[in-house]
Amino acid sequence: MKNWKCWDEAWKEEHQKRTSTDITKLCKFGIAPLDDAFVAIAKNDLVVIGADAGVGKTEMALHIARHNILEGKKVALFCLEGGYEEAISRMKWRDLCDLYYKNYTHLHIDLDFRKWFLNTLSAEDFHHLDDLDNALLNINKEKYLKNLMLYAGENLDVDIFISSLLDFHKDKSEFLSVAKASPFELDLIIIDHLQYFSLTKAESEISEITNILRTVKNITDNYGVPVILISHLRKRTRDRGIPDQEDFYGSSNIPKIASAAITITPCSKKDDLKNNIYPTFFRVAKSRIGVKPNYAFLVNFYLTTRSYMPKYQIYKIDSIKNSISGKPLEKPEIPSWAKGAV
User: Which of 65, 57, 67, 49 is nearest to 284 (CA)?
Assistant: First the structure.
């Protein structure tokens, strides 16, 4: 009877696990509507985030990583598309912008990520931003040193992924050999993105992607480390609307195996090009804690600082056409948990 639990034993285990949860030790998204909806990222969560190319998948992955690093959480970051150096540049830019707007607006620097990244700033702006860069090294050094680990390998398949995590396991001899063995010394794993895993081609792409998902879910289930997994969506059709579970590229098993699935899509008709503001829809296409998939959260993304604004609007989604229906919800219609909704 080793595979069975009686009611009394299961009840006690559930009660002990739930009442021992410390919300301060859990990670968050750092994006207002998602934190309002989910409260936190549970330790056994596998969250898949899907978007089309160029919509902001990597930006979101780095935003989540940086938010948790600065909150004192230890993050393992697999930047398989842009590499770890680009990840550092993007996170550093956020830090530079925060520092500039907090203390140095009197310098009137031309804050342009492209010029900074490609080293085409004016001599004066270069001098000022380089000074801020050096100042940041001391301000955030301790948190980044303790809490950020960047994967620097060229390729990643399932076997390499597992072996790379050995460095964070307290007892390497027990790793994956005993269910619920000693935990990882990690609070969050972020993989950007699924389609950059190296496939062996020994079996179908769908089978390999499913194997990757199950391996990652095994980590979350048995070792209590949540994973954020970024994924492409299928090729966009003209009438697709707000993407849902069926729009993930490669396999329907992606959202099925995940504990939560989130999609991102731009709201281009509301772009404010003059002020570098790009509204973005987030949809919780799947949730195991009761967040309905018929809501879309519209959040402004401020390109200058590459950050999401704290206020958002909620729209109802037409379940047949997957399109936004009508205007944003008014106050009486807004869910009670949506604290940042306007």
Answer: 49
Specify the pairing of strand 277-287 against strand 46-51: unpaired
Architecture of the domain delimited by 27-333: 3-Layer(aba) Sandwich (3.40)
Q: The whole model's pTM is what? A: 0.91
Beta-bridge partner residues of 299: 280, 312
Instruction: Name residue 276's amino acid.
Output: N
Positive or negative, the Cα torsion across 76, 78, 84, 89? negative
Q: How many CA atoms lie within 13 A of 15 on its CB side?
A: 6
Cα gap 225→163, rounded to integer Å: 16
Number of H helices, E strands in the chain: 9, 10
Domain ranges of the chain: 27-333
Query: What are the backbone angles phi and psi of residue 244, rounded to the nearest 5°?
Result: -125, -160
The average pLDDT across 25-43 equals: 96
With beta carbons less than 8 A apart as the criterion, state whether 194 and 232 touch. Answer: yes
**Pure H helices in the chain:** 7-19, 32-38, 57-70, 83-103, 113-117, 123-147, 158-165, 205-223, 253-257
Classify residue 62 by its DSSP letter: H
Contacts of residue 105, defined as CB under 8 A and 6 or more positions apart, other chains included, come to none
List, for residues 46-88, the tens digit of each pLDDT value.
Answer: 999 999 988 889 999 999 999 999 999 999 999 988 899 999 9
Nearest to 211 by CA among 248, 245, 161, 172: 161
Residue 40: per-residue pLDDT: 96
Closest CA to 313 of 270, 273, 275, 276: 270
Q: What is the dihedral of CA 134, 136, 140, 142, to 10 degrees?
A: 10
What is the predicted pLDDT for the residue at 159? 85
How many whole angstroms separate alpha carbon 227 and alpha carbon 250?
A: 19
CA dist 148 and 145 (Å) reads: 6
Tokens of 217: 């879910």
Compute the distance between CA of residue 313 and CA of residue 244 in angstroms, rounded to an integer: 19
Question: Distance between CA 76 and CA 83 in Å, rounded?
Answer: 13
